[in-house]
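2024-03-11 09:14:02 INFO worker-7 job=invfold-0412 stage=load source=structure_tokens
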């Protein structure tokens, strides 16, 4: 019996145990504050939990794409802007014929698959372009994706001259209705987890992030793989754009502004190392939930949105400092 207990205690805890305990701790703090200041529960409210997950589904899908990029020792600052232009393109092809202000009057009442594929194609193409620029020119991902942030946002404003696009065919509303965004988020998370942990794609992604030069020497086509990772991230941005446009029932050039920072924050909070080579989709999901609870908790307590952004910034800095500390400790060991 004692040997069994020793064996159980000797087993290492799951890798995401630490960040999961942080999630529980944050939830408990807001639960206590809820009773002290509002006289009601924060966590034990099914509707509130549903709304938290629903609101974070889009950021979660973005974050899954960003996770793969950061594991590869890259970064992407253009996700929100790509969502903006992809959503506008999809919306412009999803309009009804009775809309007198249709972007393309000759292309209305189209089957819903056409605007969906158009939005996904634009997002995936811009993501691939990010990867191509980084792979071919060897410029830092920060600079390349910062340029795409500006380019994609400019395209969004040019595409409809800054006007909103609305009045969609009924089928287009499916993607943002009810719990559909949550199911899409979970499906994307499961598939991405399998992709990273069970396939050659995942092994190559971790290898490049751990040591790019060693990956080249091992025969991995690093440039081509970077294009693939950024293209897949773009595809996920496109999925997020379709969901957001469907939910909001409108598209505008300002959609997605600064969302990439929330996605990066969720990834870093979830334990993915900015140094590359370390990270898990499960950790990112927990990071997304932590951000969602903090945002909803501050709103629940009546704390202004400015303080939410301040706290997010502090959390990002703390997570990066912790990551650097872990990295230095491993190097000393």
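2024-03-11 09:14:09 INFO worker-7 stage=emit residues=333
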């Amino acid at each position: 019996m004692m040997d069994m207990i020793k064996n159980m205690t000797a087993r290492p805890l799951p890798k995401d145990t630490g960040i999961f305990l942080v999630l529980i701790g944050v939830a408990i703090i807001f639960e206590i504050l809820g009773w002290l200041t509002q006289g009601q529960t924060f966590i034990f409210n099914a509707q509130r939990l549903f709304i938290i997950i629903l609101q974070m589904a889009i950021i979660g899908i973005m974050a899954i794409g960003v996770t793969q990029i950061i594991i590869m020792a890259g970064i992407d600052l253009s996700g929100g802007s790509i969502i903006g232009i992809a959503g506008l393109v999809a919306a412009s092809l999803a309009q009804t014929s009775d809309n007198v202000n249709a972007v393309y009057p000759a292309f209305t009442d189209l089957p819903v698959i056409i605007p969906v594929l158009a939005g996904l194609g634009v997002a995936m193409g811009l993501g691939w372009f990010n990867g191509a620029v980084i792979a071919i020119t060897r410029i830092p991902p920060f600079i390349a994706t910062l340029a795409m942030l500006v380019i994609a946002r400019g395209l969004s404003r040019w595409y409809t001259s800054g006007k909103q696009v609305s009045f969609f065919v009924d089928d287009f509303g499916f993607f943002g209705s009810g719990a559909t965004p949550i199911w899409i988020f979970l499906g994307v998370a499961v598939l991405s987890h399998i992709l990273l942990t069970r396939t050659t794609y995942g092994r190559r992604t971790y290898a490049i992030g751990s040591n790019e030069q060693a990956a080249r020497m091992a025969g991995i086509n690093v440039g081509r793989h970077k294009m693939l990772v950024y293209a897949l991230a773009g595809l996920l941005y496109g999925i997020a754009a379709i969901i957001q446009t469907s939910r909001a029932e409108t598209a505008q050039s300002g959609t997605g502004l600064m969302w990439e920072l929330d996605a990066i924050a969720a990834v870093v909070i979830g334990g993915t190392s900015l140094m590359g080579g370390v990270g898990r989709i499960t950790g990112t999901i927990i990071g997304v939930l932590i951000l969602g609870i903090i945002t909803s908790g501050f709103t629940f307590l009546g704390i202004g949105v400015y303080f939410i952004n301040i706290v997010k910034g502090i959390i990002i800095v703390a997570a990066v400092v912790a990551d650097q500390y872990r990295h230095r400790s491993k190097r000393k060991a």
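2024-03-11 09:14:09 INFO worker-7 stage=report msg="Residues 46-323 form a domain with the ABC transporter involved in vitamin B12 uptake, BtuC fold (CATH 1.10.3470)."
2024-03-11 09:14:10 INFO worker-7 job finished
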